[in-house]
Amino acid sequence: MMTAALIIVGAGHAGGRAALTLREEGYSGRLILIGDEPHVPYERPPLSKGLLQGSVDLAGCSLCDSARLAELGIEHIAGNPVRQLDPPQHRLQLADGQWLSYAGLLLATGGRARRLPQEQANVLYLRTHDEALALKSALRPGARLVIVGGGFIGLEVAATARGLGCEVTVLEAGPRLAGRVLAPVISEALLKLHRQHGVDVRLNVALESIHAEAVQLVDGQWLPCDLVVVGIGMQPNIELAVAAGLEVGQGIRVDTHLRTGVPDIYAAGDVCEFRLGGEYQRQETWRNAEAQGRHAALNMLGRDEPFEALPGFWSDQYDWGLQTVGVITPLTVSRVLPDAGLLLFYLDADHRLQGACGWGPGNSVAKDVKLCERLISARIALNPASLADPHVSLKHLLRG
Predict the structure, then answer these.
(1) What is the pLDDT of residues 309-320, one digit of tens each?
(2) What is the DSSP letter of 285?
(3) CB–CB of 298/257 below 8 Å?
(4) pTM of the complete model
(5) Which letter does DSSP use for residue 172 in this model?
């Protein structure tokens, strides 16, 4: 039996950030990072954009390289995944049968792409670097691409594929794009943008079957295609936690300190289910992986601080950008921007800002969304008429 270590299961963004933070904060003991993929920890947002376009490679989206891991004394185990956890004995077993003892354990196991029941050669997914490379090689000018799913992965792939000269059809089962997370007005703006760029967006449609050179819809229509890309969400990797008796819902459930109900086991990132506004939820975002990876590391070192980071995400499509921060509430105020962009403000009953969403060309809304983040933290009552007026600066409102 080896010396007890701090062990991180999952070498993605959250796990990688946790490992680096532990060293940055002075932890000098044994530190093991175990990942399913052969790569060093990397960020996923570039997979659907820069990596597909060829403007970014794996090194460009990695948190560090192998030399840096070695320099920091972080043992990176790849190709030898964890097979089981043994919380009562504070140990885990690898696929090769080896047992490792831990003094503290972080589960950052992430997830995998939800798959269709029908598997065949012309069906691709986009969750990992290697899946992105497979898709990149197929996105040739003139290729006929059908994307199943009108969420962010599907839409970002659609925008990238159009830029590479592909013919693109998006199939969305719901009545609007990204309907689970966006207000109808933003969904409509996304729909208009994609159609302006030549994407054939089909709403309220369902896939019946996939064939070598076409897909069939439930209504009987046939759509010729060379390639099908499926973007219908992520399946959290909770199997280890379930087998070990940890509490799970849609993810591994944690308290306000990102601790599971089992001593010395934490969770972070896409697989972590935590309370926000009283409700359990998971967040599959860059921002959450970054914040929770860092925070879990601090609490593994005894900081015992509650996780209170604001949620948020962004998406770049064509030459437009979307950014959100905070949470959505029923009370919404809209501000139309001079460049045809839009800001949405989400207020509580006392007119204090709880969340915001910005939509505009390029990075034009970034400054306003950053100010909204400060307004949320300030917890001051705001005048809805002032929020709606593009001539009233948010900085002025922040000063009260």
Answers:
(1) 999 999 999 999
(2) S
(3) no
(4) 0.94
(5) E
